[in-house]
Amino acid sequence: MSLRSAVRSLPFASSLVHVARRAAAPLPRQVRFWDGVDRPATEGVAQLFRLWRRGAETAAESTAVFAAYDGGDVVDIGAFHGWYAALLSPKARPGDTFVLVEPDASAIPTLLRIVGALAQTFPDLHYCVVTKAAGDGSCVRPVYPYGTDGHPRFEAVEGDDRDRSVTLDGLVAGLGVRPALLKVDVEGAEVYVLKGALGMLEAGAPRVMLEVHPRWQPEGVEADDLLTLMRERGYVAEDLDVSEDAIRQLWRRAS
């Protein structure tokens, strides 16, 4: 089954999924990718590389993830503008698929432009943008314990079926992908994403780049709960950056 056919078979509106088509216009400039090779790309792709090379923490994360990835399908939860696709595409194998999940409507236009350009730079790869939130199948909404100007927390609530989050287990099965790498950066909703990915974590053993925000967890959830969830499934972590605000770790299945 082709990726486009798989999208049509998903149990939620296919309008929420976009399979990237190659950008129609010629790519206007050369961009040095993370492997040190200059390739034709767009200014938007170039801006991503400048941004992620600029900070010591973001550069270190990118270097660690790039080294850990040896090809295979990638699922990026909280893709924003598609940095992980730009970072890892040079190491992907022909036919590999990048599934980029980003429900923030304000990020989608830029994300689609980026993956359109990448599809032209790397014509043997597939890029799929999902604009439905990933979670445990519940309806997840933000709450604002610090006021509307503060960062939200998330909570599961009752809601209409169309508002339910899509589980990673369901999404991966529906699209027919086998993730070699999973990245999760969802600003405090990590517990919902991981609970919806238990089958994949237990059976597929992907590398997992997990960013946990201790202060933004739902009521009754601690950061240690998420780390324990990973350890109980046989994963061990490499610390990339640990602070009071964020824990960034690269997980692998223990040998």
What does this structure look like?
The chain is an alpha/beta fold and 255 residues long. It has a single domain (3-253), classed as 3-Layer(aba) Sandwich (Rossmann fold). The chain is built from 9 helices and 14 strands. It has helices spanning 3-8, 43-54, 56-68, 83-88, 108-121, 168-175, 190-195, 198-204, 223-232, and strands spanning 17-19, 29-32, 38-41, 73-77, 97-101, 126-130, 134-135, 139-143, 153-157, 166-167, 179-184, 207-212, 235-242, 247-253. It has an 8-stranded mixed sheet, sandwiched between helices. Strands 2-3 form a two-stranded antiparallel ribbon. A hairpin with a 4-residue loop joins β13 (235-242) and β14. The radius of gyration is 18 Å and the shape is globular.
Task: Write a concise synopsis of the structure shown.
The protein has nine helices and 14 strands.
Give the C-alpha Rg.
18 Å
Tell me the number of helical segments per DSSP (H or I, 4 or more residues long): 9
Q: Widest sheet: strand order?
A: 1-6-5-4-11-12-14-13
Largest sheet: 8 strands, mixed
What is the H/E order? HEEEHHEHEHEEEEEHEHHEHEE
Could you give the distance between the termini?
33 Å
Give the averaged pLDDT, no decimals: 87
Shape: globular
**Fraction of residues in β-strands:** 25-35%
Helix content: 25-40%
